[in-house]
Amino acid sequence: MNRRYIIFFSILAACAGMVIALMTAFCLSSHTAVNEEQQRLTLFAGRAVARAGLTLDSARTVLLSARQFTARPCSDDHIQEMRLMVINAKSIEEMGYFESGLLKCTSWGITTATVVRAAPGFTLADGIQVTLHMKPTVTMGKRMTALHLGSYNVLIDPVRFADIVLEPDMRLAVMTGDGHVFGTQRDPDIRLSRSLLHGARGTDAGPLSVVVRGTELHAVVTEPHANVRERIVQQQWLIMPFGALAAVIVIGIVIWLARRRLSLLGELGVAIERRELSVHYQPLLHMRSGNCIGAEALVRWSRADGSAVRPDLFIPLAERNGLIQAITDHVIHTVINDFKVRFKTEPDLHIAINVSAEDIKTGRFLNVLEQGLREAGIAASHIWLEMTERGLIDVDAARITIGRARTAGHAVAIDDFGTGYSSLSCLQELPLDALKIDKSFIKVTSAALAGDSVTPHIVAMARTLHLKIVAEGIETQEQADYLQALGVELGQGWLYGKAMPLAEFLAFYQRCNADRAG
Ligand code: G
Ligand code: G
Ligand code: MN
Q1: Rounded to whole angstroms, what are the CA distances from 112 to 105, 107, 199?
Q2: Nearest CA residue ID for atom 10, ligand 1
Q3: 10 Å Cβ neighbour count for 249?
């Protein structure tokens, strides 16, 4: 993907992430605020239901126990019994006794006026008849709720059905299932309360509401939405910082991903994952005969936009960031895949694979290599391994890994020889097969053909240690001649061929060896 696109999409994603995070926080806060407020309303409505139930129950108890009265109706004893009842039942104001539909006496005394029984408004399940808003004739007091059973009634102040402590702005209606209002507080909207009771859902335009149902009496508590809005704002102040934090985290992640994608390291990781690295082959020749006996596998990375990254840039990067083993695996698989057919017909052909310090330390690549070779049916002798001196610094690990490699059947060469620090001790301690003289020594050989080059000494030392010698970086015939005169047999360099794609190398190999044969 193009850099500009990545930046563009990253900004887009960051903005989207921020908006989503903030919106989520916003919705969440209003949702929580409404929920919390509704829970509070439920608490009050529950109290109202309990209160109304108690009041109704006490009236019912009075009416039922009146049946047990033994005194002669409207005698002094009878009136005394009624008075005791009224005094003991807290919510009852007055009790009355009827005969043939006329009020004969009350807890106050004998009734002298002719008082006709008020018409019942409705009847409860147990037969108690209810008259709401009744004007008591005896006391001439405020309007009462009358409950009538048998020959008796009781008068109750409607406030008793709704006298709980409400918070400011809350309104309460206590009703029967049919919508008869037993008591109210703060003048609620009765029509609205009825429709809520009958299952209508509160709207955003209307007040916030809650219905709690008791056995006979139910409570509807409402509250203006404005109160909740205050709470919502409070909640938002509480939740917004978390939303902002989430937004910052989202943006951070996006920036991190974008930078990763934009950085060379990030791209390298992606390229390895997607197997976008390719492998080229630089021929290795037997200099005297001109026969090509193998090649060195060299990894190449060309980015999606076509630009190539040099291995001396990305290999050290991979080594520093734990990606090198993945690259080694990739090279191993590619080499096996590229040559599995050719190795069968060319028993002497070998491909050298570069391994890094990390590979040598863990030895893990040997398992990958062994499995790959086994599956492809290839002999280990076809694969050489090149290790730089830097890779051999951990001598104990190197000894083990080299030992394993050679036991498996691979030849092991020390690469870039002469550029590291541990050359001599390495050579002595490690069971190596070959030594590749670094190209920096080959370069000076042309200028110092007859002079004081170290190359002859390296060659002499390698011979003493019975190591094969490979000269790398040979660019001129002059260098080739000089090296051959020193007794170096194998050479690699631009004089013969640069690292090239598989098809090209196979053609090179064919041509090279056919010429010599012919
Ligand atoms: O051919 P060239 O310029 O590509 O090589 C640059 C450096 O990259 C060399 O030092 C070579 O050893 C290293 N290199 C190339 N391919 C690989 C590889 O597959 N693994 C490792 N570890 N190093 C490699
Ligand atoms: O693993 P090693 O560092 O040996 O990898 C070989 C490196 O040497 C690669 O970067 C390859 O491109 C480079 N190379 C191979 N032949 C020549 C050559 O003849 N001249 C020069 N300057 N570099 C070469
Ligand atoms: Mn090499």
Answers
A1: 8, 13, 48
A2: 312
A3: 12
